[in-house]
Amino acid sequence: METTTLQVRGMICAGCARGAARALQKMNGVASAEVSLDTGEAKVTFDPTHVSVAQLKAALEIAGYHSG
Questions:
Q1: What are residue 23's phi and psi, to 5 degrees?
Q2: Nearest-angstrom CA–CA distance, 60 and 9
Q3: Which residue of 10, 35, 64, 65 is surrounded by the most CB atoms within 10 Å?
Q4: What is the mean pLDDT of residues 32-54?
């Protein structure tokens, strides 16, 4: 397992943070995803043999957020 921190832009409320976390958590290979509205960051623990950082960022983009 690896852990990465992604920037999440475009969140305006706690519901946005929950939505971003759900988008990450439903991905195969993601063990956990915690998204903070205050910091604008997602801390994601994942199995790199099943999902890549690029795929995590793409999931955020599909969910309507921008990742850096």
A1: -60, -40
A2: 9
A3: 35
A4: 96
